[in-house]
């Protein structure tokens, strides 16, 4: 018996690839952050990255679609900052891959503790990244 129903062929979606300390410019980082957070204000990421322990970037072809920054204290502590994933690749595991890779790279760089501060609605995400809850203090200095 022949099946004459139309077949939908979806174009192949290029994979998302991660790169550690990939060269990035302010324009592409600001474009990513604006797509992710419409209220984002232009930021000088270059100055931040000069002080970073490392960062991991996610690319689909040559387009930046994800980013996470890790800063260190010069000792055994490192801190996850600026985790951002473009809306076009959210809910595909890109964010978890970024943070897990950042954790692996931070360990290789000598960190033994990786810290993250996050809002309550991100608890599930950071749990999937391997983080557990802790009691910590936070003080606003602004």
UniProtKB/TrEMBL annotation:
Keyword GTP-binding annotated: no
Domain N-acetyltransferase: 16-142
One annotated Gene Ontology cellular component of this protein: cytoplasm
Keywords of the record: Acyltransferase, Transferase
GO molecular function, one term: N-acetyltransferase activity
Tree of life domain: Bacteria
Name the record gives this protein: GNAT family N-acetyltransferase
């Amino acid at each position: 018996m022949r099946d004459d129903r139309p077949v939908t062929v979806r174009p192949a979606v290029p994979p998302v690839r991660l790169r550690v300390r990939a060269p990035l410019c302010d324009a592409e980082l600001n474009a990513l952050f604006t797509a992710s957070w419409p209220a984002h204000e232009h930021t000088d990421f270059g100055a931040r990255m000069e002080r970073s322990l490392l960062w991991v970037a996610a690319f689909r072809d040559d387009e930046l679609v994800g980013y996470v920054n890790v800063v260190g204290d010069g000792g055994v502590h490192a801190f996850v900052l600026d985790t951002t994933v473009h809306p076009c690749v959210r809910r595909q595991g890109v964010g978890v891959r970024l943070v897990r890779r950042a954790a692996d790279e931070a360990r290789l760089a000598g960190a033994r503790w990786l810290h993250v501060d996050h809002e309550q609605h991100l608890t599930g995400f950071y749990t999937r990244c391997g983080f557990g809850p802790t009691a910590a203090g936070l003080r606003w200095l602004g």
